[in-house]
């Protein structure tokens, strides 16, 4: 999948200092209340850029900027707007077939988790807007607790040329002449071993 947009979002978030409150006791209590999670279940919280890609769709990550609330029951990917927290997607370990990362589990880069229906791209950030290695490791450990593999490098490649095409339309630059053209694209697929995954 193309993760350049996710890395660009990391840079823009750092420059804009777009922090989401989560570290104060008041913010923690509000998170617990609005997400319906017990304080004793929370393992860690981190700002997290994320996106979900359904298999067969174009493999481009339009990342959302939010929080990753890691609990003993799952990873609650959370959006913050208007002073309130809202769960956008909950990823549970029993639904995860495998994970992948481009270089290694210790490298500052996104980690991907795959369910039967979709892939989730995750990039946890610390208070300075930089890669959060501790949260990254915790996500891997909690999402892959039952022997699900973490695929590295080419083994975790999850995009391929689609046999479909898409129509791109616009205006010819400098004119009022419209145009439309058909382009091929890379589609998302599930790279998990066939013993654990589907959607190949």
UniProtKB/TrEMBL annotation:
<protein>
    <recommendedName>
        <fullName>Lipoprotein</fullName>
    </recommendedName>
</protein>
<feature type="signal peptide">
    <location>
        <begin position="1"/>
        <end position="19"/>
    </location>
</feature>
<keyword id="KW-0732">Signal</keyword>
